[in-house]
Amino acid sequence: MADALATMASMFKIGANTEIQPIYVQIKNLPAHVMSVEDEVDENPWYFDILQYIKQQVYPEHATEVDKRTLRRMVAGYFLSGETLYKKGRDGTLMRCVDSAEARKILEEVHGGSYGSHASGHRMARQIMRAGYYWLTLETDCIGHVRKCHKCQEHGDYIHVPPNPLHVITSPWPFSMWGIDFIGMITPKASNGH
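The structure assignment produced for this chain is given below.
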């Protein structure tokens, strides 16, 4: 412990009488609320806990105090209208929360559907949010969808080719860069007589 304090004192320049509190690391047995969702394993959408809290003020079972506090903090950014949950945007717009099945349909339609332009992942995420849809992993899913799109990979730019600068040659008048040298007669003649 004294060696660790001496090392820290040399790194941070602390006084000799300063007391440093140790850092404790804890591992939780139950999952906490995180901002990533792959698939719905329990047949409930990703926003189910938020919806239940807004409707009935009910916490999920096995929720700790930290989970409850996190859920209360998250709920402030959502709005319930009838049975439809909306996410409040930064500019005050409401975006409808969708589950993973509907999110896949939206991704396919916006990217390559009748109005799809095969846009990049970030641009496609902005288009979806502007259309009024939201899910937690929106941007990650958009980038992943673009990476898996066969047409985008086939017709995309060659990103691993080094750039070649273009050298434009301008000529003030035709043939100004061409020249002819006159050297006179060449002796001896070539083998073919020229």
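Interim note for the steering committee: Residues 107 and 142 are 7 Å apart (CA to CA). The two ends are 96 Å apart (CA to CA).
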